[in-house]
Amino acid sequence: MASWAPHRPGFQTVDRVVWREVRNADLGPDVDALALLRDGLAAIGALDAVAMMTSRDIRRHFTGTAWVGNVTATCLATVGLTNGETVGRRRPGRPGPLGTVNLLVHVDHALTEAAMLEAMSIAAEARTMAILEGGYRPDADAPPVTGTGTDCIVIACPATGEPSPFAGMHTAIGEALGAATLAAIRAGVADWLAERRG
To answer: In angstroms, rounded to a whole number, what is the distance separating the alpha carbons of residues 151 and 99?
Structure first.
């Protein structure tokens, strides 16, 4: 796996990813969020896992799967945009309830480290496209949100087999993981927007 997850970031060989659901009250200014995550993982015997945190109800998760040639990619995501930002322009102050976009994309082909980084860029691009399609703006005069200040992406692939050196948009791997990510994030954005309107 490759990620910038708060627990076990970077390149890791592991067999599970954990989403830790927290409430805003759990993360006050005096709380060490990484220690909170680590202690929670220790309590369930999951310190070996790559782990992310979200204030989104994890029951509201979405998946997308795509098949291109002999490649299968699957994305699992939770989507909250209350912590939304527009790339290149931070919002002043800290927004209200913290929401984030956490996603795990698995491809069924081994990848080199370079290809895993390329796959991460495709997943990030797909996430951003799906969010932009939703058109969420925190204020009427604000630009559309492109992500959140705490988004996290995990790319996973088999640890065995001949690794593919590329995962860009010209490849079946890139097409499949992009399509799977688009499907999951589109569904998550639609759900989040519908909940806000409800």
So the answer is: 9
Domain housing 159: 56-197
Q: Is the pTM of this model over 0.70?
A: yes
192 falls within a domain: yes
Q: CB-based contacts of 139: which residues, under 8 Å, 6+ apart?
A: none
What distance lies between CA 167 and its chain's CA centroid? 18
Residue pair 34/180 in contact by the 8 Å Cβ criterion: no
With both helix axes pointing from N to C terminus, report the angle between 172-197 and 113-134 in degrees, rounded to the nearest 10: 30
Domain count, the chain: 1
The CATH number of the domain holding residue 104 is 3.30.365
pLDDT along the chain (198 residues), means of 10: 97 96 80 91 97 92 98 97 87 68 98 98 98 91 90 97 96 98 98 89
Reported as type and span, the H/E element at residue 52 is strand 50-54
In a domain, 122, yes or no: yes
CA angle 79, 195, 129 (to 5 degrees): 40
Ramachandran angles phi, psi of 27, nearest 5°:
-120, 50
3-state secondary structure of 122: helix
